[in-house]
């Protein structure tokens, strides 16, 4: 066995759990629970990120007047999440496995303190043999507070919980090298670091999904860059999870089994850097750097952002806030945790012999 997987995250997309008519596919859900239960009993710690709240609520409630999209999502998810977690509870109970519900939102990843609180919650669940079932708190996370979709959430969870693999289950066998509808297209089996996939991805989404394949690909790339194997596979196929794990552990070449695997980076990334990598959306300001600093950052050297290389400081930020790093051509090249506030950074800007504005340990270059 090449690599014994001991902790994984599994994301189940809306489409896997819903039938064509939008109702919850309990047969599929039950089959996936059976596989997860088998893996759990074999000693694999599993964090489940499950969509399906909105879809399962939609078939339960029939509003009398027309609702806007926010009202619909809030109403359906409030009803649907209760239904969904109840189903999981019953299905896992048949295997004697306790489950717990974790509802979260984007803001909870914004500060390091909230982030560590969530991490602690899931760690204590795993330590006590409980499977965390995570979903976005759709009832209160609206518009800009929302994750792009649950793929983004699953990436954050995988990174936060230091899993070895993230398995994203959708209703398609993987990423195709063309339109999935074209019979000439094939599933890409392995994706190496740095490969540009944009020309393959269509903007179309499946009927109940939110983000589409593009977000899946972007998230998968980022998570794989942090050293985590990411797999995109078809959750509608029988025994898919069990087959993937066997295949991954033995590194067998099973030609029958199709899925896309993002090869993880061999470089380890510290847990603080992982948090910073996913915190771009919370940036409070920008540090613009000169050409020389840009070149050094792009090299393999471990360097901090020093005031001498900074040409402009934008926005108002406090010490420990997240800031975006912008290169001399105006491109965002990374994110970091500020070592001082924006006033102090402006004061030191362009000067020699000053303390770093972002220390290397708190800097994530994309
Ligand atoms: N190159 C591609 N390979 C595979 N799927 C693609 C590709 N381009 C677009 N897609 C679409 O992405 C969909 C999956 O994304 P999404 O609808 O967000 O699923 P989920 O709800 O499971 O997260 C597929 O059903 C497919 O229609
Ligand atoms: N939180 C939502 C999931 C929405 C979503 O993004 O789903 P998906 O397209 O499966 O990633 C729900 O439970 O309905």
TrEMBL record:
Signal peptide: none
Top EC class, one word: transferase
Main location: cytoplasm
Organism of derivation: Bacteroides eggerthii 1_2_48FAA
Stated name of the protein: Glutamate 5-kinase
UniProt pathway annotation: Amino-acid biosynthesis; L-proline biosynthesis; L-glutamate 5-semialdehyde from L-glutamate: step 1/2
PROSITE patterns, per the entry: GLUTAMATE_5_KINASE, PUA
Entry's EC annotation: 2.7.2.11
Lineage start: Bacteria, Pseudomonadati, Bacteroidota, Bacteroidia, Bacteroidales
Coiled-coil stretches noted in the UniProt entry, renumbered to this chain: none
Gene: proB
Gene Ontology molecular functions: ATP binding; glutamate 5-kinase activity; RNA binding
Summary of the function given for this chain in its UniProt record: Catalyzes the transfer of a phosphate group to glutamate to form L-glutamate 5-phosphate.
Catalytic activity: L-glutamate + ATP = L-glutamyl 5-phosphate + ADP
The family this protein is said to belong to: Belongs to the glutamate 5-kinase family.
Domain PUA span(s) in chain numbering: 285-363
Entry GO terms, CC: cytosol
GO biological process: L-proline biosynthetic process
Residues binding ATP, per UniProt: 11
Keywords: Amino-acid biosynthesis, ATP-binding, Cytoplasm, Kinase, Nucleotide-binding, Proline biosynthesis, Transferase
Compartments, record wording: Cytoplasm
Binding site for substrate: 51, 138, 150
